[in-house]
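Issue 218. Parser rejects a valid record. Input:
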Amino acid sequence: MKRVVAEYEDADDASAAEADLRDADLEPVRPDVDNRFFDPAARPPEARGLVWGGLVGGVLGTVLLGAMALDFLWLPRLSPIMTASRLTLLVFGFGLGAAAGGFVGGVWGTYQDIPDPTGPRVAVDAPDDRASDAKERLRAHDPSALDEAVTTHR
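Output the parser choked on:
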């Protein structure tokens, strides 16, 4: 079974989506989610932290190893990697910085609040073979967010 959740900006769109699901013999509900971290329609804030942390860390890592390659900065413990070419050092610096920054940004993102839903939501529990049909029916009414989660395995 999969749970497909869609969030709409307009109540009329949500009502039309519910009617469309009922026509397909699926039973829609208006979900109440106590913890937004378990809501499939909610966008997790750690994803934003991962992206920004990875980008900032990548740039800082590139600048750090670029400065070492141009002899502006010298760190004795990192000197063995200085035998690589400048391009290799820049790519290596970007990779290390992106990994470290992405980790820090992801951890920072988990401490951020998830915004409350702005519009009505429609959810449906559908068997695996009908989940894609339910998702397409919900998508036909222009949701602002749409996602699915596996609820049970058979």
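Fixed in the parser; the record now loads. Residues 45-69 form the longest helix (25 residues).
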